[in-house]
Amino acid sequence: MTEKDILIIGCGAAGTNHARLLWPQGHRVSLYDENAEQAQRLGTALGLNVVTDCEGDYDLVVVAVPTAWHYRYIAEQLQAGRNVVSEKPLCLYEKEARAVVRHAENVAANLYVAESQGYGGVTQGMATRIAAGEFGRPVLWRINAMSPYRSQEWSYDLDIGGGAFLEGGVHMLTVARAFFGEVVAWGGTFQCYQGGTGPDTGALIIEYEQGDAVMLSIGWGTKGCQSGECKPLPNQGGIIGPEKCEPFWTQDNHRDMWAELLPAIDAGEQPFVTVEHAAGAVADVWSCYAAGGYFPKQGAAEND
Known about the structure:
This protein is of the alpha/beta class. The protein folds into two domains: about 5-115 and about 255-275, Rossmann fold, CATH 3.40.50.720; about 120-250 and about 285-290, Dihydrodipicolinate Reductase, domain 2. The chain contains nine helices and twelve strands. The protein has a six-stranded parallel beta sheet, sandwiched between helices. Strands 8-9-10-7-11-12 form a six-stranded mixed beta sheet. A hairpin with a 5-residue loop joins β8 and β9. The longest helix is centred in the middle third of the chain and has 18 residues, at about 165-180.
């Protein structure tokens, strides 16, 4: 595998994780954060170069900032001709996600989404089994994804982080787009609100063209969990069909992702789970919010 010059934009939890995985492999990793002190702390801890801007001759740029800032950084880096890996979700709003896809189509650089499931054989193997009719049709993918807390306050705010369903649920919905294709119906119910900013627990139900469906229950940082009054459901998932049922849970392991993504970039290969799937998943979450009676503002992409 070719050693690369890599810039990581954002030195919070995700950026730190990427830096800790990439620099031991011999890559030349540089760090940037609008909070210069945060970038310097991580740079000092890992012995990495800290830069004051996002310019430079980089083979790859990792965008790991809060979701509301994704569009600007991704668009800038693609237009500069740099390959980009974006943390998920792809963007905060559907219009931004679609605009990013158009940017990627019109430049020589490549855009990848940090979905470890999109680079592993397990996910592609499951898609092949579903398509082959091993489970019968239609298929239901039932997922429970709960956590007792969430460290970033911006995750709860739908105008900054998109709430639990965008920050967490979009991972599985991105993969579901690769499994099942286009969506024909959206539904959502929300039971708990954090600080009045938006839903942080509830359920989404999405139906696809062939009648397949995803039922996703997700939440974190709910008031009951924070106060110790209740415990979250264990994370679990299963593919349920009329002929066969099987546990299936997509893990988010960046170590596995990088092990497969970097050689794929060297070879010019595109992932099984694409940027188009990721953009569709962002649209699905907001459609479910609206179907559940929550109508946050939808931002417009710059230069769209």
